Description:
Blueprint: H1 2-14, H2 16-45, E1 56-62, H3 73-80, E2 86-100, E3 106-113, H4 117-121, E4 127-128, H5 135-138, E5 141-144, H6 146-153, E6 163-166, E7 169-176, E8 190-193, E9 205-210, H7 216-233, E10 242-247, H8 254-288, H9 290-298, H10 303-341, H11 357-373, H12 376-383, H13 387-393, H14 399-437, E11 447-451, H15 469-483, E12 489-495, E13 505-510, E14 516-524, H16 528-532, E15 536-539, E16 553-557, H17 558-564, E17 585-590, E18 605-609, E19 621-626, H18 634-644, E20 651-655, H19 656-663, H20 665-699, H21 701-709, H22 714-743, H23 759-785, H24 789-795
Parallel strand pairs: 3-8, 5-7, 14-18, 16-17
Antiparallel strand pairs: 1-9, 1-10, 2-3, 2-6, 2-9, 4-7, 5-8, 6-7, 11-19, 11-20, 12-19, 13-14, 15-17, 16-18
Helix pairs in contact: 1-10, 2-8, 2-10, 2-11, 8-12, 8-14, 8-20, 9-13, 10-11, 10-12, 14-20, 14-22, 14-23, 15-18, 20-23, 21-24, 22-23
Amino acid sequence: MHRDLLWAVRWLRKNPLFTLSVAAILALGIGANTAVFSIVDAALLRPLPYESSGRLVRIEKTNPRTSYTIISPAEYLAWAARSDLFETSAAWSRDFVTLTGGAEPDQIVAIRSTPGLFSMLGVRARLGRGLVAGDEAAMGAAVLSDRLWRRLFHGDPATIGRAVTVSGQAFTIAGVMPPEFEFPDSAVEMWLPLQLTPASTGRVQVVARTRRTVPIAAAQSAMTIVARQLERDDPQKNAGVQLTVTPWRDSVGEKYERSLLFILAAVGLVLLIACADVAGLLLSRAVGRQKEIAIRASLGAGFWRVLRQLLAESFVLAALGSAAGIAVAYGTLQLLLKAVAALPIALPHVQRVAVDGRVLLFDLAVCLVMAFLFSLAPLLIASKADLQAALRSGFGAGVPGTSKRIFSLLIACETGFAFLLLVASGLMVRSLIRIQQTDKGFQPDHVLTMRVPIGTLTDPRPSGKYATKPQQMAYYRALLDRMERVPGTRAVAVVNNMPLSSVNSVINLVARDGAELPTSTRTVSPHYFAAMGIPLLSGRTFTNADTSDAPLVAIVNEFLARQLFPGRDPVGLPLPEADHKDRVTIAGVVKNSWQLSYDQPPKGEVYLPYQQYIFATFMSSVVARTSGDPRAVVSTLRKEIWAVDPNQPVIKIATLQDVIDDAIWRPRFSAWVFSILGGLALLLTSAGVYAVVAYTAGLRAREVGIRVALGASPRAVMSLILRDAMIPLISGLAVSAAAAFLLTRLLASLLYEVGATDPVTFGGAAAVVLAIGAIASARPAWHAATGDPLAALRSE
């Protein structure tokens, strides 16, 4: 085999154009696959970077009446004592906190956890230490993420021991975690101590490590018994309650995970197209080497000897392509990581993405598989060669028929794979266009947004100057008074949580059948609807007279109006609240608008005046409609806010259009990636079809010469060659269309108002593939039809 490899290297050095063409095609296919695999591997496949991660479990308590986990501190403390089941455990809760002490005030996502979390995970801080026993009593230690440390403290090691203020409470920075540490997800940038007693209120989430001798199924059985005991102790509160014990898995997100897998499948199709291209080139070379193979066989070389030689050449080419593919993968990965860094969220495990040993092992596996696949066609030709005919004419009797069928199959495969990719990219692009063109219920042009939070998620009434609701109302009223006077602003308002913020406040209404109806709620200032451009359908909007001393009022969207009062105008009617003793009168009805997410249909929504109700201020935002470019008033508005309170964080500064673009990052990213892959597939397919048609037309030179000599016109010859090229192309499209009809249904959950079998997308993709195939075939067909027939006949 060593001699075969050396001979293959020598032959490829003598044919540099052929070698470079094959290596370039393979580098594109293998490089793209390696780059995407490195991201999928880091996000989905690698084991969690925690100690004994296989024994880490998530414990959740759910109730049929609610859709969220409702574990109380007292329940957690009781479970934590179950040493027969769990080796150790930790409770934690998510919070949005205000951090001061850096260059500017900032709001960050923090985790408040019991001190055993870091020791249970087996993760050490890169600087300083993590949370330890005793921190929960002192409540003075804070641990930063590497990202926060670099962003706010510029990676200064002297940050350890520095004092910071977190939502009005003094903390000392005790440690900085490694870059790859993300618990429970990549959005968290700080960990704070959490002290729990049986009297503590609120909700917590629980992670635990089972004992070595306790399988997860046994822990689940034990917790099921606990759930039944809870139900017996309080049948009204815990009816149907469930306790589940599941393996801990980082929350990547179903749609994000599915998008990654589809992208990996897409680059796999690109690799198959590249494989078909290389197979066509090697097949052309094998047909041209029939006489050489016949001579080697006549000199005593057996079939396995010839087979070994062809395999050696394929493996050398695959190795060259893989080596070049690693360079392409590195460049592609840098491009992808830059695109990922520009996304509005921190995607999980990006820090672990690298072309490392696991990725190189994948590259090697792809190399071996590719070498085997594109060797099949030349090996088939070699096995069917007629040596006597090859020695006489240079081509085996029967080889033209066999090679023609294989060439046709390669064209069909290339066009079929390209069609699948074009359909997928077309669906993604059309879905994105539909999202961008759909009526959002508000007008995003000339609107600026900025978050100005008070308090935290776990402590909405902080101690100090904003401890009471009247103080919070007065603060926002002072902000509005100053910002409304800023030149260039047409309408300024405050809302407790912006649309598309993924945070929802809920009040319980009473449905027509008497059942509880949880309904999304926003508290807003009078000019909110004018600032957002939400049309008023009936009644009135809020005014400055809607204060705590005035009659209580609310505005509902049209969905809720139809839901509660079908066929009637609800203006002047009472809002059927389940939890409120005072009458709340509906003052107006506004148009439906986007709420939590772009892909959720409209639901009922209630708007309340902020001077009568104020809550969830940890997400409060300012919305300003301007007469010109919204960014032009950013600095002035920030100065006005800090004139009221210099310690107030002003974050998430963006135009409303930017907010929309950030909310639809997933379809935008998917459409971008699939469009690039679709273009690459078209490029490789056109090159492959051109090469196959050009070579097969050359093999038919004698036939074409005879036809021309007998009176065939160039147009007739060109039509003959084009027909032979288009028949397998159309056949490949037909088979691929049937496959796409079934496979694209898997994409349905990622699409928006576009069917998975959208006829426009299917028709457009088919037209593009047919056009590319015809264009790629036209030049070699014309060259064959207009060539000198006498020269072709003399060469035979």
